[in-house]
């Protein structure tokens, strides 16, 4: 019999079992991971389409699991949300990212810092004070911070959540709607939410070169954003062709592997210098 590799198990049952095993292990290890600070934050550049200047950095969390190696956020954020650990994790990310960013602010580029937040943190009622504390301790001015929320906030009927977002906005923070176009998009909500920036999901960017209908949709979202007074960021830009197509649509901001992969804070000064001599 052929030896089945780790990722090549023979029966569906076994596949499910090993997936559950990993999930269960990650869930069980999360509290220790927080105590021992097994997390790290990497930063991906957001650039202007016209001149490719770096305008912002998005903070993305990673878990360096002692046995399983680097675990991506898509695997553990949901687990952290399920057992209430998302709030302490998010507090840690906010503090780490603002502290890292404060170190970069010494030169006077007008960079923004994007931090992803969970709707659970909003529901817990302490997002605005946690953001305020991280800003105060790091000295990062509020207008430099972009809070990225997903459309799942729209599923929450409570207006309180939206008023908390409005509080953050009143503090001067920028609010962006992440993964726009994936999931539960609703134009009615879009007009109502206190949102400054639309981040268009990378699913839509992937085939704009080959799919005219997809491209028309992207162009329409860019126009919609402009009409509503929002900036639009196209996510997941991987090819020069996609970048050109987006430029033709007068999209102004892009993010993706073409411009830069997420990287350690230590690598940013050299990257910024090489990519974008100020
Ligand atoms: P997101 O906010 O949509 O972040 C963008 C994701 O797309 C990142 O995945 C990034 O590495 C990936 N990406 C960027 N450019 C490209 C590209 O050109 N091609 C492709 N294929 N992918 C690209 P990542 O880092 O694995 O993060 C996944 C998601 O986890 C994020 O999606 C975000 O929703 C969530 N997340 C990350 N960090 C945090 C955090 O600190 N707190 C919370 N609540 N969620 C986080
Ligand atoms: Ca994001
Ligand atoms: Ca996104
Ligand atoms: Ca996302």
Automatic annotation (TrEMBL):
<feature type="domain" description="EAL">
    <location>
        <begin position="23"/>
        <end position="276"/>
    </location>
</feature>
<protein>
    <submittedName>
        <fullName>PAS domain S-box-containing protein/diguanylate cyclase (GGDEF)-like protein</fullName>
    </submittedName>
</protein>
